[in-house]
Amino acid sequence: MPLLEIKNLKMDFGSGTDALRAVDGVSLTIGAGETVCLVGESGCGKSVTALSIARLVPAPPANYVGGEILLNGRDVLKMSNGELRQIRGGVVSYVFQEPGASLNPVFRIGNQIKESLKLHRPIGTPASGTARINETNTPGQRPALQNYNDEVIRLLKLVGIPAPESRIKNYPFEMSGGMQQRVMIAMALASEPKLLVADEPTTALDVTIQAQILELLHDLKQRLGMAILLITHNLGIVGDMADRVAVMYAGQIVELSPAKELLRRPLHPYTKALINSVPKLAGGADRLSAIPGNVPRIGNFPPGCRFAPRCPIARPECSEKIPELVEVEAGRWVRCPFWKTP
Amino acid sequence: MSLLEVKNLKVHFPVKHGMFSRVREFVKAVDDVSFAIEPGETLGLVGESGCGKTTLGRAIVRLVEPTAGSVLLSGEDITQMNSSELRARRRKFQMIFQDPYGSLNPRMTVEQIVGEALDIHKLTGSKPARHKRIAELLAAVGLDPVHAQRYPHEFSGGQRQRIGIARALAVEPELIICDEPVSALDVSVQAQIINLLRDLQQQHGIAYLFIAHDLAVVEHISHRVMVMYLGKIVETADAKTLIREPQHPYTQALISAVPEVDPESKRRRIVLPGDVPSPIHPPPGCPFHPRCPIAEERCKTEVPAFREVAKNHRAACHLAGKKIDVKL
Are A108 and A170 in contact (CB under 8 A)? Predict the structure, then answer.
């Protein structure tokens, strides 16, 4: 049984005649310890898909009209509030794009991390059976916490914050963006999740700081063996981090593939166009092959294949029926019947 | 004669502690920067946030007042001009901003936005001529002239950036300062705007100062590139050389930190420790030495000269050219 299995998820914003379909039939699985990237441009539905895993999209306006989100085999969409509280943090943790906006500005960071510990790993309670997250990744029973402060310091050390003993007294504004993001990651790890969802975790950061955070995530993944769902619009990050990648366009997955194969040989015309439209370092000064037109807005998706109006190989029949996501080679799924067209 | 010549430009912002205290400290946002741009050339300016690249761009057009130094536009020093003289010269240089949402007045139609520039500089005599000129400008940036009566909110991000470009083009400038013009846009739209800027340069011979943090974008569009760190230019060379043979360790780290799409890439990432230091108290000696993987004893005390390390290639580093061994 995979850790996470999203089956044909359909989510609207609003209901009745005003309903706007934001996620339209997304299916995705993540195995334990696997890193999956969700790639797409703004408004493609990647963030709401990711937030839905712990049902973090407020409903209403969100309206789940179909599908299942199975986390350890249990459907998140059918859970009670009490159960949701257990999995939020307990099984799935989140790291968001803007660390400055995610941290509470009036509490010291040590206390903010402690909050997560109090909720999920209160002092003295015995292990819940999950493998303990530690520096050496030795499997086994997690001993009960003795002291919150020690654990907070251990977590801050784990995410590479220098002098954590004095840093726990800092307020978020006293830290740089990169340090704030490390605190966010420490907070996400505090509850020992099995799945870390990172929604554009480096987009607000500078490249040298981005490199530090990616290195940290890479390192944590290897040491802690948790699964990561990484949401990004940067294809370079996909090459660095992902085992598998799902490309989303206008609420649907259009290509799903092992990451290296997708970057080496993209199959869907949108993926091809996306890779070609990014300038590459030392890539020469040729004209960029831009994708004509704009990303369609939610509620305004074209009929049939949603990429057809911008697609270089579109045929008249493309605008008639939405193509199916089909496995065309082992592990490679494509939503385009004409993917072989050069 | 160069189109633009910046000499020893400094922009220092006073830092006040408390309401009545005297100013004792300064943020040296731009500290002794000199460079030139030739007609029709694109000069790229890269650096991380807080390095002073935006302030430099704004100081050149006097949207912030320089503290010292001169900015010569076709030989005339614009830092010494009064406001009416400056206004007349503003026809020659324009600016495109990062945020296409924030830089257009939401209560003006596209026609009013683009037409305002024409009116200020009295570039069109009659109403029909003005109307025709606006239609031409919109067509030139790839917008349908029939949309001239629409408001900015009716357009997507990429289209709004096109409106900003049309507004800048209206006065037929010789130089456009582009401050992160594509970083707020979607990847697929980013390429459209980059291509548009290049086409316009070829048609009209406009020079650009192209400010961005994305090295790949800057390399793609620029003839020459400058790298800025803590208010100073640390390296400059032509775009290809800078990317292929970076001399300054900061540039090397910056290039290595760009995530690569190509899974076969053999590039090793140099991860710099720490953050950019505060520009109020820049480190002594070489400002980069606390993060530099190859810093030596003298880097902590001696400020490196911005010296020529190869033809048309300058770097501010005692150890310029020394390769960084990346731990495997």
Answer: yes
